[in-house]
Amino acid sequence: MDGKCGTCGDAYDAEVRDNEAGGIYATGVIGRNYTRGQVITVQIRLTASHLGNFQFKICPHNNPKVPVTQECLNQHKLNLAGTDEHHFYPKETGYYDIDLQLPLDMVCSQCILQWHYTAGNTWGCAPDGDCCLGCASKQETFINCADIAIFDDGGVAPPTSGPSTGNPPTQAPTTAQPTERPTTQAPPTAAPTTHSPTTQSPTDAPTTQGPSTQSPTDDCVLMECPVGLTLMCDGTGDLAGDLTRQRFCNDHCRLQTASCTTQLCSCTCNKITCKAVGGYEGSPTHDDWCQTICTQDSNLCPDHRDQCQCTEDL
């Protein structure tokens, strides 16, 4: 609404925001436990370069029943480890591992970690009259959140104000509960402008982590498909066929995060082939882009029919 987004990327004027307390994706899962002052590694996936920058902010919220405020997040911008800089500027599409410095004086049983991407590809004029690409005061903005906990050196965090109902990030279209490191992604709102395949399977970079209180359960959907097949997931129960739930399940189940559970998602291995068409036809990198973007839900890319074409062998 009026160019505004919800604190975690939902519609600003939504009566109930899906990714904030009280929303459908507030599952109560703390994605990762850390210790105060720790350097953590987060991974982002940029599917279309909009010449922008990433910022990461954190709020020691400790109350999963109440939505976090942007004012709290703005008070705690995370620096890139070893620097005083809190902006990260990616040069092209692809995966990026970013080291962030957690505050030395922050502990929490529920911290909200916000990922914030501001694009820089909108033409406009700055207050001094200088006009250029990226000078516009209003740029595209993409936001996502994850719930984490930060312990003292002795493994003690303050109590929450009620039972945890944390909010896993969703795709904007993407989001994700942090696994070994919080994983987020910029939404595919445009055809790729640079070349980098974006297969949804991040590599495991070494990372230091705090004491973990979670363990795998039989409730998780752990599934890998043979070469040539694509993992396609759907919602369960009343949300079977819901495109938003399909995108959520495809993101989380392909990454095998804790949010991919049998209560939420059902997955199969399907033979789906997506290829670039038109001016992109014959480009392997654009074929990879189509395969990733178009298999996010069962509609198979209605927004990119001029760039991609998919076939499904039943």
From TrEMBL:
<feature type="compositionally biased region" description="Low complexity">
    <location>
        <begin position="158"/>
        <end position="217"/>
    </location>
</feature>
<dbReference type="InterPro" id="IPR004302">
    <property type="entry name" value="Cellulose/chitin-bd_N"/>
</dbReference>
<protein>
    <submittedName>
        <fullName>Uncharacterized protein</fullName>
    </submittedName>
</protein>
<dbReference type="Pfam" id="PF03067">
    <property type="entry name" value="LPMO_10"/>
</dbReference>
<feature type="region of interest" description="Disordered">
    <location>
        <begin position="156"/>
        <end position="217"/>
    </location>
</feature>
